[in-house]
Every structure is written in C-alpha cells, then in structure tokens.
C-alpha cells in the first residue's frame, strides 16, 4: 500500500499502532504514529513511499509476559501502545498507557 493511502486512513481513525503483515504470515513489523512523524513533515515524499518504509520491527509481548516486560517494551519501542500477540504472531489485543 502506498504511504499516502495509509496516511489518509490513519487520519480518519483513533489507533496509534498498526500491524504490518505480508500475505502469508504473522506480523513482523508495525507502524506507529510516532514513526510516521518524520515522514509527515515532507508530503512530497508520500507518493514515492510504501507503508513498509515507515515500519519498525515488532517486539512481541505475549499473554504470558509480565507487566514489567510490557513496560520494558513500551519504553524500548517509544510507543504508547504495543501489540499482544500469540506464538503464531496473531494479534490478541493492544496494551498501553
């Protein structure tokens, strides 16, 4: 998906974290509103970029992880929210502060 299409969808919603998948598998990357900020300042780049250009690797949090681990990942990713995923990479929920 072109980044310009993605940004128009982001503006209409309230989410701050977006999972990125390929056609055949689990989530490997995410795009956050924070990761988009540097790109948002230069709209002339949008037509030349795809969503994956704004993605960062997923640091998974699982249901078996501790609250300490969740807070660690929030700090590491510099996000307000993180995805809770199962061992297959399927999203079970979102946690944040």
Question: What's this, in brief?
Answer:
This protein is α+β, with helices and mostly antiparallel strands and 97 residues long. Helices cover 30% and strands 22% of the residues. A hairpin with an 8-residue loop joins strand 1 and strand 2 (29-32).
Tally of helical segments: 3
**Which consecutive residue ranges, at least 5 long each, have pLDDT under 50?**
none
Average predicted confidence as pLDDT: 86
Query: What composes the largest sheet?
Result: 3 strands, antiparallel
Number of strands: 5
Helix content: 25-40%
Widest β-sheet, arrangement of strands: 1-2-3
Classify the beta-strand content into a percent band.
15-25%
What class, by secondary structure content?
A: alpha+beta
What is the 3D shape?
A: globular
Termini Cα gap: 29 Å
SSE string: HEEHEHEE
Round the Cα radius of gyration to an integer and report it: 14 Å
